[in-house]
Write a structure and sequence with these properties.
Length: 474
């Protein structure tokens, strides 16, 4: 029966446990290996950032920033200075109110703060808001600017992995703390080969992980100009207004706020209507059209199989041209394991120089789920050698044996207390050990150790060196 602890992981968060974590490590190791063969280096940005960064990058109006963020108050200010009708009031932090000595010692400090505030209010009245990152692209772009990476050979190719936080309604494959593995290419020329190679890398990674049933969808959403996407969006809005009454409430709202997002709709009754709407491919400007054609050609040259999906869009202005998504099997309705696209305006939006950018984010939780569904989960990690020691003298030898075997890379279990022989063997097999190394007085005296193969019960006597050689030869 499961114990009920006083505390449980917060809804939408969870513990990743062995043996599943071995699969996470394998996936992450594969990412390190594959991405480095494409010349990417790892970046590890912080998990908390200035809230303004995401408001800028993702937009105040989008669902993500409006509803789905975890704010972190940087600290409760010691004092808050309020001015109403010219009256200045100082509010003292609750915890300081109970300790008069501490309070007195702080008074001087408060007086000087007050002086400072009088001469420059913005110097102390500021209350920072931090945010747990909902994604990492904005952080990578911030880091690119902050570390002057535009001075490095371009483009700069970076990848990251780690937890992201969104206050979404939890369900299968959708968590509030989830993990992404992502990559970004910043700077460099306008070459379609950049888009194609990024996607090629992604598909090689999935292939190496053994992910089944992957489907790559691509699209081009042009760029924000009147003769390209803006013109298309105006046309789309016009057509949507004509069918407004037949649409659901969300789509009706989006006709005004973000008509492209109507194309994302999964509502059954809207599908037939959406199928009749104008398509962006027919409204791209010549440059974007040529770019899209070249990306497809480059993908074909690399043997990457894709499907075109004209409904694959992004709602934000700085997204442009290539967008893509990968789905995998065994995930139900949340079957997107990766989303990506080009975002040439983002670095500039964050205060940097005009810089091209493209990237993707893989949902690692979903990738793992899909691998598990197709039977790719590793079995519980057993032990190579369980050391069954008996007696003080044997214990010293056992410690030495464990050290030698572990140094050689074997998984060794050294029981912390002496166990009866039968009990020790029982433990050894429960832990999935392959061998039991039996060390008693006889073995210590003779220098010949007993190695028992648990699968068939056979035993052999070996010196320390012979034992090591034998195990290495397997
Ligand atoms: P996005 O950053 O929204 O483009 O998402 C990229 C990928 O991250 C998606 O395709 C999902 O695989 C994954 N993802 C996004 N949100 C969540 C979530 N709440 N829980 C688990 N995975 C997620």
């Amino acid at each position: 029966m499961a114990n009920k602890s006083k505390f449980q992981a917060i809804r939408g968060t969870r513990d990743l446990l062995p043996p599943e974590t071995a699969l996470w490590n394998r996936v992450e190791q594969t990412a390190h290996e594959v991405f480095s063969t494409f010349g990417f280096g790892e970046i590890r940005p912080p998990i908390i950032e200035d809230a303004g960064l995401f408001a800028r990058a993702i937009g105040d109006e989008t669902d993500v920033v409006a509803k789905e963020m975890f704010n972190v108050q940087s600290s409760e200010p010691d004092i808050v200075i309020k001015t109403e009708d010219g009256i200045i009031a100082i509010e003292i932090k609750e915890s300081l109110r109970t300790d008069s000595r501490q309070l007195e010692s702080q008074l001087e400090h408060y007086r000087s703060l007050l002086e400072r505030w009088r001469s420059d209010p913005s110097s102390i009245a500021k209350k920072e808001t931090w945010m747990l990152r909902p994604e990492a692209t904005a952080s990578v772009c911030r880091a690119y600017i902050e570390h002057n990476m535009q001075q490095l050979p371009q483009p700069v190719k970076l990848y990251y992995m780690g937890p992201m936080f969104r206050r979404e309604r939890p369900q299968k494959g959708r968590y509030r703390q989830f993990y992404q593995i992502g990559a970004e290419i910043l700077g460099g020329p306008d070459a379609p080969a950049i888009d194609a190679e990024l996607i090629e890398m992604l598909m090689s990674f999935f292939d190496k992980c053994g992910l089944q049933g992957t489907e790559l969808s691509i699209n081009s959403i042009g760029h924000a100009a009147d003769n390209c996407r803006r013109g298309y969006v105006a046309k789309l809005r016009e057509e949507l207004i004509k069918v407004k009454d037949k649409l659901g409430a969300d789509s009706q709202r989006r006709i005004e706020t973000n008509p492209l997002r109507v194309l994302d709709s999964k509502l059954e009754h809207e599908q037939a209507i959406i199928a009749t709407l104008p398509r962006i491919a027919d409204h791209l400007c010549d440059e974007c059209k040529a770019h899209y054609a070249a990306v497809k050609h480059e993908l074909e040259q690399r043997g990457v199989i894709y499907r075109e999906n004209w409904r694959l869009v992004r709602g934000l202005d700085y997204y442009m041209r290539t967008t893509f998504e990968i789905t995998a099997q065994g995930l139900g309705s949340q079957n997107a394991v990766c989303g990506g696209g080009r975002y040439d305006g983002l670095v500039e939006l964050l205060g940097g120089p005009p810089t091209k950018g493209i990237g993707f984010a893989i949902g690692e939780d979903r990738l793992i789920l899909s691998l598990q569904e197709s039977g790719k989960a590793p079995a519980a990690q057993g032990r190579d050698v369980y050391i069954a020691w008996m007696g003080e003298k044997a214990y010293a030898t056992a410690i030495r044996a464990a050290k030698t075997l572990r140094k050689a890379g074997f998984r060794v279990e050294l029981p912390p207390t002496e166990l009866k022989f039968g009990k020790a063997l029982e433990r050894a097999s429960k832990l999935g050990s392959r061998f039991a190394l039996i060390l008693g007085d006889n073995e210590v005296q003779s220098g010949e150790w007993t190695l028992k193969t648990l699968a068939d019960g056979s035993q052999q006597k070996l010196t320390e060196q012979a034992l090591l050689d034998y195990l290495k030869s397997l």
